[in-house]
């Protein structure tokens, strides 16, 4: 496992990067999976009516999507800081090469934010089913664009100097590889699994047996779909990456991820059978995801490591991170950490007081 050979400073930044990225991934899964469910249900509503169970799932997701998007974006900031410390050269070269395409993420996210509020407004309730479906599809398309941009940027950041030069000389704004589609599909379909658990916790007190089965369908589709997408992705991976993944330490991550997914599936199958969501089974499904997500995130880093070694960008990145670690600034970091933590605690307290006052 490449990480174990890293100097202590680099390892610390890598761990911080991975932990904060996982938090971003969980929130992003709610946003992407939620937009998929809402769009699917709203489009279906154009031709037919859906049951109370689907209505309750769609209602809670619609209600929480704006907040979830805010959380996703906020939780993206920490990993973007750590990625600069770890892989600055590769990351920023990809950013610069994609240029306007990359920056388009910002206006797209701003429009998506407004559409999410529109989607839960009383105004849209008075519009036709077709208009509602178009808004839901618009939201989904925007999130797919953002997710695709991150995957494309990531893959471009792993390319060689020669590929970067060719990309720039050709004036291209898109970077296509055989990995892009299966990789994106894996992220998108996998998000349904995380979503199912999060919504299950939200609806736990009120879910009917049909609601439980609908949620199980969402979660199990996510699990089965991710296995199929992972199979496709495996076929599209460069030979060197497949060889690295077959090494015992990395293989244990594949097995760990598989075990996590199996626990998740077993818990949802049991809940679908009984039509109930007892805390023990819900914790099992949550635990399954809590194993699968870190394993997948670590494997994702193995893919990056193999590529950067191959193109000669790994060692310079390790050295640059060590240089950055010597620059100091820990005191300033701590000061702002304390100030921000105090500000957040104050806001939470004010909200809690206001809620108590209103109750
Ligand atoms: C709805 C909005 C967003 C979606 C759907 C989304 C989706 C994704 C996806 C799919 C990936 C993984 C890409 C891959 O491995 O192929 C990713 C990675 C990442 N995202 Fe987000 N993201 C969103 C917003 C943001 C924002 C606003 C930030 C920064 C403030 C951010 C920061 C990151 C970082 C740092 C990574 C890791 C990049 C890397 O390692 O190359 N994300 N995001």
Outline:
With 359 residues, this protein is mainly alpha-helical. It has helices spanning 8-47, 52-98, 100-103, 105-119, 122-125, 129-157, 161-169, 180-203, 209-236, 239-245, 248-274, 279-310, 314-325, 330-358.
The radius of gyration computed from the alpha-carbon positions, rounded to a whole number of angstroms, is 22 Å
Domains, number:
1
Give the number of DSSP strands.
0
- List the total number of helices: 14
Shape: globular
SSE string, helices as H and strands as E:
HHHHHHHHHHHHHH
Helix and strand composition category? mainly alpha
Question: How big a fraction of the residues is strand?
Answer: under 5%
Low-confidence stretches: none
Spell out which ligands are present.
protoporphyrin IX containing FE
What is the overall pLDDT average?
Answer: 95
Helix content: over 70%
Distance between the termini: 53 Å
How would you classify the quaternary structure? Answer: single chain
Largest sheet: none
Explain this structure.
The protein has helices spanning 8-47, 52-98, 100-103, 105-119, 122-125, 129-157, 161-169, 180-203, 209-236, 239-245, 248-274, 279-310, 314-325, 330-358. The chain is an all-alpha fold and 359 residues long. The protein has one domain (2-324). Helix 1 (8-47) packs across helix 2. It starts with 7 loop residues before the first helix and ends with a helix. The protein binds protoporphyrin IX containing FE.
